[in-house]
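Supplementary Data S3. Sequence and structure tokens for construct A.
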Amino acid sequence: MVTIGKKQLLALMTLVCGATLFIGIFGYFSTVGSGGGAAERTFQAQQVLYVSLLVLIAEIFASVQVFRRSRDLIRELDKIIELSKHSGFSPTGNVRRLGPIGARIDLLYHSLSSLNDKKTLKISALSGLVEFLCDNIALPLVVTTVTGTIVHASRSLAERVKFSQAELMERPIEEILHGIAFAEVAAEIDKSHSPIDREIDKNMLTFYPIRNRDANLAYVVCGFHAHPFLVRSPQKVVREGTKKVGISLKRLLGMGKARKRRD
């Protein structure tokens, strides 16, 4: 299967035909100028010129056929590309008209389709896993896209906001968190690369960034917490715990001093 552009074909056809014509004319005059009878030389020269013209016509015909085949191949490939946008399409019947290259295209298509099916099954399984976790986790959670559209919500969150899980799907998060500037929250998470805390509608929330393989922000997980201590950053948690330990030590020391005084 040969594919060639119009400009390349025209240049090649001109070169080959020109060379054939030159050889025919050169052979004609060389034969006429050679030794022997005039009638015999003229007859031989005409034969050379006639053969060269036949070869020239064959070359032109072959070039036209190559051009037509190349054009038909490109059209057929464009048709396959357009049809492949629709689900359930199989190129087997279409690529048969392409000859040997069609069989290879069909093999490549089925290989890619098989890989795509495996990835689709894996994604569907992961989606089922997320739904299972959302149904059984006790913490009120909502998962949104980077634009704030809800794609997952835990059962505890749905009960908290008085909606069913199905009713929460595809809703803007602003409908359940009034007063939130989600665009600013998403921008801050994307810039900081770490969770951030917010107090909205007297609720303490933590927003967690979920990134894809290219490290771009893909989803935002929003968790509701009953106590501010639960949503603080790890550093704040450590400081808070240290303070509590320090207070406990002071109380113990104070109790020890009081006992010594009594003694």
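Construct B, processed identically:
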Amino acid sequence: MLYEALSHPAARLLPSANSATLGMLLHAYARAAAPLPAPVAAAARSLLRRPGSMRSMPTPCLVQAVWAMARLQAGDAGVYAAAVREAAGRLPRMGTHDLSLLLWSLSSAGVYDGALMGAAAPLLTQRLQQEPWDEQALCNVAFAYGQTRHYHPPLVAAIAAAAQQHASQLLGSCTATGVLLQALAQLQHRDDALVTCLAQHMVAGVGSSSGSRREAAAGSRRSRGEAAAGSRRSRGEAAAAEAAADALAATWRFMQRHGWRRRSVAAVAWALAHLGHVDHSAMVAACVQWYSHPGSRPGQPSGGGDGSSADPYDQGRPSGGDAEGTW
């Protein structure tokens, strides 16, 4: 109700507003996930398209405005074209946070400018190699280049290398993991070292309690019983089956512990399968099982689970998350 009540005063004030006022207003609507009223959206687009308007905006205000317009699905071709032109002249001076969020915003709005992406790629590659990044900026850039299918091998390799350094933090967010792996798959970039690192962190991240060991080995004990009764499987095959069951149960428990959600689980499974990571079948199997029966144990029917029907990822774009609200 508050944002609806503000719509008419805001629409009247925007034509004469400065960049800071515009940025704060759009940011408020975007963070509240409040629909931008048509009069406010029209006034904001008119102001942003005005010649020289974006040029007068400090970079944080410019990025904030473009992000909000993309988040609220309120921008148009004129707004984004002006943002691309202005960003092109500021690239070397833009901070990593601002640049990553701008690229996410443009790609999220379906805007692709090859010249801008191409100019930003070596700059981002250099920064990835020389300075620490947070997971948000890393995922923003991965999403932007994956979504637009703009493949710059040195940048993608640097993203994968940085992801290994942030493996435990990335895996703590199912969305970040899904975004990163899906971007690599969209770019047809297979990185065995990264996937191995993530798989090992998932297995190691849940410990090895006796209860989980018993669950993990249940299927393999049945297999050994069949072998003792006359099965021709070798001991090596039985050991491999037990190891696979152990990895599956550990991966499953990791997903439960960190509250992984269905859309991100599907993205991870698709990316692994698309890139042919058959040597990490436990991750794929756990993803498929979780997506089919959220919250139940491997091999068990769904028993209520984690309320996945209310998962915002099943309703479209993520509805919340960190300080930026991007994921």
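Residues 235-257 form the longest helix (23 residues). The chain has a mean pLDDT of 77.
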